[in-house]
Amino acid sequence: MSEEKKQKDKFSYEAKNAWLEMGEDEREEVFSFNKEYADFLTANKTEREFVKAAVKKLEAAGFKNIKQYEELKKGDKIYVLNRSRALMAAVIGEKELTDGLKIVGSHIDSPRLDLKPNPLYEAGELGLFKTHYYGGVKKYQWVTMPLALHGIVVKDDGTEVEINIGEKESDPIFFISDLLPHLGKSQMKKSMKEGITGEKLNLVVGSIPVADEDAKEKIKTAILEHLNKEYGIKEEDFMSADLQAVPAFKTRDAGFDRGLLAGYGHDDRVCSFTALEAILDLGQPKYTSMILLMDREEVGSMGSTGMQSHFFEDQLANLVDLYYDSYSELLLRRVMQNSKVISADVNAAYDPDFAELYAKYNSAYLGKGIVISKYTGARGKAGASEASAEFMAEIRGLFNNKGVIWQTAELGRIDEGGGGTIAKFLANYNMDVVDSGPPVLSMHSPYEVVSKVDVYNSYLAYNVFLEN
């Protein structure tokens, strides 16, 4: 390389391909880490499943439910549950809480199909479940594919029944039919948005009728008899159930070189898993380090388990009380205003088949590391917070010094769309917040794709942020 080119490169910025920055041992670590992530993602496709598995990992690492503590001191490891659908975990640091916390916040919900409160009906010699889609989905992507049913049914006496059907090879799967092309002349004239409507996302769940002449709906009756025999539930129990139809796919390696990982729910469980692993691998941090694994982000973060609830603020107040043996609003506000946050959420990976929708010089690419996003939002940056120049400098300086491979990007071209994260809700507490997570190809589809090296650099990024 010429001296002139060296000098030019010294002042230029270009995102690096992370694979080329790694030796053979590091690559093996990337593949090993992603094997664990892939298994975790395959096994935990709902918020409840993720939280349950996360608690198991936390407890194995010495974390205890905050209810077991009467006071908090340096080195204590705690977690807090919110209705089995959201989770906070923290390691108490060397510095005072009022010096601020280091927080990595992500979300564990993903686009899916929820069963309606009264889902079961019979039509055309089939038994079907009515669904209501959750989050931003392209409805046509959910038809004619194997689906599994996950969740819980809570009876009126409080008994909980766990449901997980469609993941084992011996299980039946469920599916949504589509119109055959021979009869699709009118359908094919519609827009992609209108070709499959929300009310047509109905799961086929059975077809064998009961041999009972008195039964008016023989297939529906047969399905109810089966559910009662196998799970002890009746039709009314659906009204107090959290049941989700999700893709019955395993997370799999993609590409000849196995550098990519295809699976359901990378958005945003890839950030939640890497944040979880980051706090599990902490030693004694300088500042109190916390992860937030929140629910409901895909529908605006509203509700008791979303970031707009008072869960975070209430539990932070609880931490202050247990740490200082007293509580005041002033103490809580000092903790908040001195805290720093990575809003761990994914960005859109550049797709060469749709290049016209991406900003050429401000796109995220698979294999170039974790993305730092100064802002999200739509149109004129609407609906999002924006990281300060000072905090952006702090984050990229930290990543540079600790060997984290990173890139920076927006979410597509201006006025072509946009999106938001939980960042703005945390920023409202007067915290420094920046969005940072790996890029995802085919985001919000039933089968998303990430680069293994980006997943690993996300783990490294969250770990060094919490540790320093």
Automatic annotation (TrEMBL):
Keyword Zinc: yes
Keywords assigned: Aminopeptidase, Hydrolase, Metal-binding, Metalloprotease, Protease, Zinc
Signal peptide: none
GO biological process terms held by the UniProt record: proteolysis
Documented EC number(s): 3.4.11.-
Superkingdom classification of source: Bacteria
Top EC class, one word: hydrolase
UniProt keyword Glycoprotein present: no
GO molecular function, one term: zinc ion binding
Protein name according to UniProt: M18 family aminopeptidase
Species the sequence originates in: Halanaerobium hydrogeniformans
Co-factor requirement: Zn(2+)
Gene Ontology terms: cellular component: cytoplasm
